[in-house]
Amino acid sequence: MQTLNRLLLSLLKFIVIVLAIVCVSVIGGIGGYYVASTRLPTQVREEPVALGAIRKVKPAVVTIVNKTLPNGAFTGQELTIIAYGSGVVIDSAGFIVTNYHVVNLDDMLWVIFPSGQRELARVIGEDSVSDIAVIQVKKAMPAVAHFGDSSQLEPGQVVIAIGSPLDEFHGTVTMGIVSGLNRKVGGIDGLIQTDAAINKGNSGGPLIDLNGQIMGINTLTVRTASDSGILEGLGFAVPSNKVREIVNPWIEKGRQK
User: Fold this and answer.
1) Which member of 131, 164, 179, 209 is catalytic?
2) What are the φ/ψ torsions at residue 35 (nearest 5 degrees)?
3) How do residues 161-217 score in pLDDT, each as one tens digit?
4) Where are the domains of the chain?
5) Catalytic residue among 86, 164, 203, 240
6) CA separation for the pair 9, 189 (Å, rounded)
7) Domain 146-243 belongs to what topology?
8) Is the terminal CB of the chain with fewer CB neighbours within 10 Å at N or C?
């Protein structure tokens, strides 16, 4: 009888140990699944935020080609491209913000929409000091982008540049961070510095945040210095608050014409 009791007790201990091991394994598995399921959305969430901002603004980004007639008069010769860049539609009435150096000395401004449609535009206002200009195309706009508050920008914040580098790669998207604020380059001060790639042709395109708001208008890149050789990641944009202050009077005046 005692032998039987010892056997039963041993069996009971064995069962308890097995159950304990099984419970620990189940609890560990559930815990691991919970941790993985809570972390995974955080990792995946970053990409859709950027994509959402891009999808929101990209349809409002246009290519601008500035052509001139040879000798200032029509002679049957081909028009010469004197400048090209980007722009962003900021009003459903066809007002587009770009850079002054893109549209300066224009004879014929062509706006190329993401669909490939081309339309002639006219200059509404220009400011050489800030390198900002507004042009207008009188047609239905495919999309409109909106200004954000550039005073809320902080170094390290993610930003996205959209434009048409080399007048060929339309709708190019690059991403970086705000590298610095209130920079001065040449005669323009108060600029946003970013390491988002800005190349020739990006001029006049928007610098946006992850909410799809225009935080600046890309204007220039510094690539060389006499004592430092080739430089990289030094792009600059005019802050949205400054742009808005400049262009709003032009747009209101343009509406009356």
Assistant:
1) 131
2) -65, -45
3) 999 888 678 889 999 999 999 998 888 899 999 999 888 888 999 999 999 999 999
4) 58-143+248-255, 146-243
5) 203
6) 85
7) Thrombin, subunit H (2.40.10)
8) N
Asked about 203 being catalytic, the answer comes back as: yes
Q: Which of 101, 106, 170, 240 is catalytic?
A: 101
User: Cβ-count burial of 134 within 10 angstroms (0-12 exposed, 13-18 middle, 19+ buried)?
Assistant: buried
Which tens digits make up the pLDDT trace of 53-75? 999 999 999 999 987 655 544 44
Helix (H, G, I), strand (E, B) or coil at 42: helix
Topology at the third CATH level for domain 58-143+248-255: Thrombin, subunit H (2.40.10)
Q: Does the annotation mark 91 as catalytic?
A: no
Shared fold status for 58-143+248-255 and 146-243: yes
pTM over 0.85: no
Cβ atoms of 65 and 41 closer than 8 Å: no
Beta pairing, strands 213-221 & 61-68: unpaired
